[in-house]
Amino acid sequence: MSTGLVLRRALPGDASAIAAIYNAEVLNSTATFDLVARSEEEQREWMGAHEGAYPLIVAEGERGLRGPGPGMVVGFGSLSPYRTRPAYATTVEDSVYVGASHRHQGAGGQILAELVRLARAHGFHTVIGRVAAENTASIGLHQACGFVVAGVEREIGRKFGRWLDVAILQLLL
Ligand SMILES: CC(C)(COP(=O)(O)OP(=O)(O)OC[C@H]1O[C@@H](n2cnc3c(N)ncnc32)[C@H](O)[C@@H]1OP(=O)(O)O)[C@@H](O)C(=O)NCCC(=O)NCCS
């Protein structure tokens, strides 16, 4: 079934749309362990670090189809280095965010599947998602894409006055 979305590499002009989606989670949820909203300039810097084998992609409304308005960015996803030490170089970490009013329509699944495809195409060996253990949507999303829970790190984050466990979701490519 068509979701009415197309995926493409992010462009500098997407910075404010991406920041709006991301900052809503910074302020209101434990989806990200950032505590302070990103400025548009910080967002641009973060985007600048995502190119080549570490892509940043957006899902936007497709022209001529039902769904979100044409060209409207409804979600994004990225691949980042997992750790800086060289022996981790064959591992990437994924990140997926969909705007609250566009969830449950397949966007997250489409974005994560494309990130997995890109990770495979770039020759990585495994993809890791680090997800707050209470984030059942993201855990479900990863499992639906074939990831398995490799472990849980207990109480390694603290946000909104609560300790947070982190589930490690892993896909071997
Ligand atoms: C996690 C998130 C990206 C899912 O995006 P989405 O567009 O709603 O996901 P989809 O509609 O593509 O769902 C794909 C699959 O994920 C799983 N899933 C999605 N939402 C779920 C939920 N609330 N509970 C359990 N499983 C869920 C399901 O298996 C679903 O497949 P189905 O619709 O056939 O059942 C979205 O909820 C989000 O952006 N949340 C806030 C940010 C976030 O948590 N990002 C991840 C940080 S680690």
Mean pLDDT: 94
What is bound: which ligands? Answer: coenzyme A
Distance from first to last alpha carbon: 26 Å
**What is the helix tally?**
4
- The CATH topology assignment of the domain at 5-124 is Aminopeptidase
Spans of at least 5 consecutive residues whose pLDDT stays below 50 are none
The ordered H/E elements are EHHEEEHEHEE
Instruction: Return the CATH class of the domain at 5-124.
Output: Alpha Beta
- The radius of gyration computed from the alpha-carbon positions, rounded to a whole number of angstroms, is 16 Å
Helix content, binned percent: 25-40%
CATH architecture of the domain at 5-124: 3-Layer(aba) Sandwich
What's the total count of β strands? Answer: 7
Describe the global form: globular
Write out the CATH superfamily name of the domain at 5-124. Answer: Gcn5-related N-acetyltransferase (GNAT)
Q: Sheet bearing the most strands, described? A: 7 strands, mixed
**Strands side by side in the biggest sheet:** 1-2-3-4-5-7-6
Strand content: 25-35%
Q: What structural class results from the helix and strand content?
A: alpha+beta
Give short descriptive properties of this protein.
single chain; 173 residues; alpha+beta; Aminopeptidase; seven-stranded mixed beta sheet; 4 helices; 7 strands; globular; binds coenzyme A
How would you characterize this protein structure?
With 173 residues, the chain is of the alpha+beta class. The protein has helices at 15-28, 40-48, 107-121, 136-144; strands spanning 5-9, 56-61, 73-81, 91-98, 126-132, 148-159, 162-172. It has a domain at 5-124: Aminopeptidase, CATH 3.40.630. 27% of the residues lie in helices and 34% in strands. β6 and β7 form a beta hairpin. α1 (15-28) packs across α2. 32% of the residues are buried. The model has no long low-confidence stretch (mean pLDDT 94). Coenzyme A binds at residues 25, 31, 96-98, 103-109, 129, 131, 135-138, 140-141, 144.
